[in-house]
Amino acid sequence: MRWCSVQWPSGTTYEGVADAGVSHGHGVLQFANGDRYEGEFRRGEMHGTGTYYWAEGAKHRGEWKRGIMSGCGVREEPEKDPIGGEFVDDVYAGDAIGCSREEAQVRRGRRSKGSGPTRHASGFHEPN
């Protein structure tokens, strides 16, 4: 595994750890539209814990599985109360036992592994 920095013609960039030319480990994917994901990648997809920032100001901190919000997380939007709990297939599923907003924040602090346009970097091919 090694550190890589990649920029595509569209302006999208990836900086972080890669394995065999694929984002794998901690990294930052900055989309040309202003969206950004900072966190863990596995085999070219957002996977583990991380934060997705939408250009308009919303963000989601939490667990990701194969490029989608899945598990405990907290979604914050400007001028709205944050919602926290369980997310399934990018959709808020409600409070779950052991997965409250507070628990999601604690989990994020404890773990080091682990809806924008396309939220995954399929290796070092430009994301769609």
Structural write-up:
- The structure is a single chain.
- The longest helix has 10 residues, at 101-110.
- This protein starts with a strand and ends in an 18-residue tail after the last helix.
- It contains 1 helix and 9 strands, in the order E-E-E-E-E-E-E-E-E-H.
- It has 128 residues and is mostly beta strands.
- A 9-stranded antiparallel β-sheet has the order 1-2-3-4-5-6-7-8-9, with helices on one face.
- The chain is flat.
- Helix content is 8%, strand content 50%.
SSE topology:
Elements lengths: L1 E6 L5 E7 L2 E9 L5 E7 L2 E9 L5 E7 L2 E9 L6 E6 L2 E4 L6 H10 L18
Antiparallel strand pairs: 1-2, 2-3, 3-4, 4-5, 5-6, 6-7, 7-8, 8-9
Tell me, briefly, the overall form: flat
What are the low-pLDDT stretches, counting only 5+ consecutive residues below 50?
107-124
- Estimate the mean pLDDT confidence: 80
Measured between the Cα atoms of the first and last residue, the distance is 25 Å
Question: Could you tell me the strand content as a percent range?
Answer: over 45%
Write a short abstract of this structure.
With 128 residues, the protein is mainly β.
